[in-house]
Every structure is written in C-alpha cells, then in structure tokens.
C-alpha cells in the first residue's frame, strides 16, 4: 500500500483532492492511503509515508517543506490537476515518485 500526504495551508482544499486521488486509485485497483494535512502538522504525520504532495499554492515553500520531510520525497502537485481535481494525474505523480524512490514496492 502506498501512503501519501497531501500538504496544504489549512488542509481544507486538499481534502477534495485526496478524495479524487482515492477514487482514481480504486478504479485502477491500487491500494493507497492519502490524507490531506495542514502544512503546520506535517511532521506529526510522516511516519510510514512514501510521498508528500505539496499543494501548488505552497510552491514558494517547497524547499522548506522538503527539508522538514527528511527522507520522505516531497513534490508539488501539478497545478492544473489540483485546480481540476484530477485524481488520475495526481495519482500518476505519486506512482512516479514511489517507483523512483522505493523501486516500485
């Protein structure tokens, strides 16, 4: 199972995106646990996480957020996918990062 955190300013808008990702994963029979979390609570939720997706409006804070994630890879979610709540594109991003960093496990 893939565990992902979708990091946003307050955790509200990312909740809709996390649901879209879960729906896309279900269609593809991919087991995923993706949770929307406020950037301020990030460290409290990293245990066992495979990837952190950063909401596009936090692009300017990417480097700081990535440092706080330690060994967990952090990437900014595709802006168009986020705006359109395109769970398929976001899921593709997650899979790409997991395959690159974890060897596809």
List the helices and strands and how they pair.
Blueprint: E1 2-8, H1 13-27, E2 32-38, E3 51-54, H2 62-68, E4 74-76, H3 79-83, H4 87-102
Parallel strand pairs: 1-2, 1-3, 3-4
Helix pairs in contact: 1-4
Give a concise summary:
This protein has helices at residues 13-27, 62-68, 79-83, 87-102, and strands at 2-8, 32-38, 51-54, 74-76. With 105 residues, it is an alpha/beta fold.
Task: Tell me what the structure shows.
The chain is built from four helices and four strands. The chain is an alpha/beta fold. It has one domain (2-102): Response regulator (Rossmann fold). It has a four-stranded parallel beta sheet, with helices on both faces. α2 (62-68) links the parallel β3 (51-54) and β4. α1 packs across α4. The mean pLDDT is 92.
Give the CATH topology. Rossmann fold
Tell me which oligomeric state these chains represent.
single chain
Give the termini distance in whole angstroms. Answer: 8 Å
Tell the overall outline: globular
Major sheet size, sense and barrel closure: 4 strands, parallel
Q: Report the CATH superfamily.
A: Response regulator
Q: What are the segments in which pLDDT stays under 50 over at least 5 consecutive residues? A: none
Mean pLDDT figure: 92
Number of continuous helical runs: 4
CATH architectural arrangement = 3-Layer(aba) Sandwich
CATH class: Alpha Beta
Give me some keywords for this one:
Rossmann fold; 20% strand; globular; four-stranded parallel β-sheet
């Amino acid at each position: 199972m893939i565990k992902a955190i979708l990091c946003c300013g307050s955790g509200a808008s990312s909740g809709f995106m996390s649901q879209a990702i879960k729906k896309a994963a279900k269609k593809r029979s991919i087991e995923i646990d993706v949770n929307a979390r406020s950037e301020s609570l990030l460290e409290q939720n990293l245990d066992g996480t495979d990837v952190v997706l950063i909401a596009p409006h936090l692009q300017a804070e990417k480097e700081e957020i990535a440092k706080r994630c330690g060994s967990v890879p952090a990437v900014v979610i595709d802006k168009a996918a986020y705006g359109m709540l395109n769970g398929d594109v976001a899921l593709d991003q997650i899979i790409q990062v997991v395959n690159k960093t974890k060897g596809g496990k």
